[in-house]
Amino acid sequence: MIGHLEKGTCHLNINAQDLNSFAASCKQGRVLVNDNYYDDMINFEEIPTGENPFRCPTCKTPLPNLSGLFQHVHHSAICGQDLNRGTIGKLVRWLERQCEQISHN
Predict the structure, then answer these.
(1) 57-81 as b/e, with b when 16 or more CB fall inside 10 Å?
(2) Interval 26-56: pLDDT, tens
């Protein structure tokens, strides 16, 4: 679903910049977003292709987008992150709430 939203094909008109801003603005944002990109994400600015603004909260692996972060967590047993718990679980619930608010407007 995150990949779908990142491509901007959602009927809610959510795109990668929106997702980046949502992720940066959650309580875990400072842990998930590299400092050099945090302000740009909060301000809905586009991140250039080839950059790695996200990072795994456990192993600090740099990642190019939110979907890459979720794929990393899903496929990496070493990091100990879970899509339903901890830092990433909180991010998932935050993103769900943000999308729900948009769909109700």
Answers:
(1) bbeebebebbbbbbebbeeeeebeb
(2) 999 999 999 999 999 999 998 999 999 999 9
In the block, tokens 């996200």 appear at 54
Domain hosting residue 53, numbered range: 2-104
- State how many domains the chain has: 1
pLDDT at 8 > cutoff 60: no
Q: Among 77, 100, 68, 74, which residue's Cα sits nearest to residue 2? A: 68
Region class of 50: left (phi > 0), else alpha (psi between -120 and 50), else beta: left
What count of other Cβ atoms lies within 10 Å of the Cβ of residue 105? 6
Q: Which two tokens stand for residue 94?
A: 């935050």
Pairwise CA distance, residues 86 & 28, whole Å: 10
pLDDT tens digit string along 53-88?
999 999 999 999 998 898 898 887 777 788 888 898
